[in-house]
């Protein structure tokens, strides 16, 4: 995974400049839950603020070697920094750009393809060998970083609005979604564009399960009947020729149909859209389950 100099992050602007009909320049004022995990000036992963004390991040992104190849980011969380807001706005108000240090990493596991439940959770694991893996990485590619002190809410730094925990089966929810997939066209998420040094919105459209599986089978024969098949996967495709990249994992997708609440977290992004396969998102039902397993409390 490529690393990026966070000097670019300080250039975020609020003026909407059209890049294409599917993406526009934006700022953290429009996506105040957007954050980055960094190591020095290296960008490790995108993250999402789900609680002023917690961010959700991609475990696969943390499972990358540091400059010392014998160490991985997940093994050295105290050397990381979580950055939220816009640095250029800090002179107006200290709360418009904030940096915090992670104190704890929670990693959950799954035990069955059929059951929507967390099968054990570990705090600051020293190894990830025990985790269930799918074709492209960790099966449950969500981790919780607790930050200290907690973020302070401002117009540029806020908690994301999360779709409430499902009252019924996730399978029934997704089946209903597939039947009404045409209604799910107003979904967006934020992505850092390193080439243009901007934060952009990327418009994405929901892809039905069978179409997503067919696309992955055509892309990679190993995926046929094997990926994506876990209960918590949802697929979205960018409306332009490029798509989300591996370092974007941890970003939140919000949908107008669900009152602009977060419905999923990006967890699989094979090649920035170059092979025309959808990206895979983990439904927030699993975020609720992970948060409860880690804190014994409900995600509000």
UniProtKB/TrEMBL annotation:
GO MF annotation list: serine-type endopeptidase activity
InterPro entries for the chain: Peptidase_S1_PA (IPR009003), Peptidase_S1_PA_chymotrypsin (IPR043504), Trypsin_dom (IPR001254)
The UniProt record lists the keyword DNA damage: no
Protein name (database record): Peptidase S1 domain-containing protein
Originating species: Apolygus lucorum (Small green plant bug)
An annotated GO BP: proteolysis
Leader peptide range in chain numbering: 1-20
Keyword Signal belongs to the record: yes
Segments forming domain Peptidase S1: 191-285
Superkingdom, natural source: Eukaryota
Keyword terms of this UniProt record: Signal
């Amino acid at each position: 995974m490529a690393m990026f100099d966070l000097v670019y992050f300080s250039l975020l602007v609020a003026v909407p400049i059209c890049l294409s009909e599917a993406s526009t320049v934006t700022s953290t004022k429009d996506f105040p839950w957007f954050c980055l995990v960094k190591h020095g000036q290296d960008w490790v992963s995108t993250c999402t603020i789900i609680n002023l004390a917690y961010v959700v991040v991609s475990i696969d992104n943390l499972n990358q070697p540091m400059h010392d190849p014998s160490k991985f980011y997940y093994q050295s969380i105290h050397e990381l920094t979580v950055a939220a807001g816009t640095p250029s706005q800090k002179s107006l108000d200290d709360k418009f750009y904030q940096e915090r240090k992670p104190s704890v990493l929670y990693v959950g596991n799954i035990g069955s393809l059929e059951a929507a439940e967390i099968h054990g959770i570990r705090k600051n694991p020293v190894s990830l060998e025990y985790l269930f893996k799918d074709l492209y990485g960790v099966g449950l590619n969500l981790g919780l970083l607790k930050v200290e002190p907690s973020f302070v809410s401002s117009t540029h730094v806020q908690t994301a609005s999360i779709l409430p925990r499902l009252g019924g089966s996730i399978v029934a929810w997704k089946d209903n979604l597939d039947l009404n997939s045409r209604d799910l066209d107003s979904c967006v998420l934020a992505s850092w564009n390193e080439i243009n040094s901007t934060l952009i919105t990327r418009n994405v459209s929901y892809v039905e399960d069978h179409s997503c599986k067919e696309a992955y089978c055509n892309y990679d024969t190993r995926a046929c009947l094997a990926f994506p098949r876990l209960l918590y996967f949802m697929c979205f495709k960018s409306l332009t020729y490029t798509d989300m990249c591996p370092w974007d994992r941890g970003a939140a997708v919000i949908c107008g149909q669900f009152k602009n609440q977060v419905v999923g977290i990006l967890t699989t992004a094979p090649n920035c859209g170059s092979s025309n396969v959808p990206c895979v998102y983990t439904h927030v039902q699993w975020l609720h389950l992970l948060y409860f397993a880690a804190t014994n409390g409900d995600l509000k």
